[in-house]
Amino acid sequence: MLLITDPKMPLFFFDVQDGKSHSSDTEGTHYVGALEARADAVRMLVAMAQDEARGELPSKLSVTVSDESRRPVMEANIDCTIKVF
């Protein structure tokens, strides 16, 4: 996916929480709209879940997407648990 950094496009920030730590996005990313930002939030969660599956479980993963005023516009979550029978 090609991201174009056009200052006229809306800016979104992605803050990540993995249950152990919190990481705030200080730069932001320009997207055509909220649907593209949402798709990237989901991609981030999937990648985080893959990493968590190799480590300590259970883990609650969260990505909060904020607009350029730093107002939250959406939150995506995954609860990572594995049950072995």
UniProtKB/TrEMBL annotation:
One Pfam family here: DUF6894
Domain of life: Bacteria
Domain DUF6894: from-to ranges: 11-78
Annotated protein name in UniProt: DUF6894 domain-containing protein
